[in-house]
What does this fold into?
Amino acid sequence: MGKLEGKIALITGGSDGIGLATAQRFVAEGAEHIFITGRRNVSNMADLDRLYSLIQKEKGRLDILFANAAIFETAPIHLVTEKHFDDTFNINVKGILFTVQKALPIFTDGGSIILNASVGSIKAYPNESVYSASKAAVRSFARCWRVDLKERHIRVNAVSPGAIDTLALRNAGNTEEEQKAYLDACAAATTMNRLGTPDEIAKAVVFLASDDSSYITGIELFVDGGMGQI
It folds into this structure.
């Protein structure tokens, strides 16, 4: 019997990378049904309303929510534009807020909400001020929402990946040389001298979604190869 046997789950940003790996892990752990959305619609209220209407119609409830959808764009402070800020906060912060809020009417009491934050919530990296600020907000959401939802016994936790080998990370940099240098620097910043894999994050999300973590709530679980810890 899997750790998520019979559960109804939603994963946002589930078409590739961490989201897709998590969906595969959820299937392996016996989840009854997994709804997957792309990244761009999480900041659109009408899209979210349609999504939850569909989940309610087809399954009637939601037990697990992995609010994973995010974008990773970099810019030094003197080149930050209003669009860069708005794009990042619309998806990484506004999107997560309303993804969770609009799920609550059909969310099971005692269910589990997992937010995808980042080691950037506690560390400073060049050109990542806007991204890091958005992820610090996500970490704060996990604390505050656990307090807001305590009467319903809904656990809220954040998982904070380090440098994970995803398409978004590999696309950082304007040239192939810049991309390689960035990936090498990310790997060197860990104590393991390598990038993490999406599946390594997925395993942590399964833990937070399952009863294995039944006495864990409001935390930020770092899965970062020591990147933010040492």
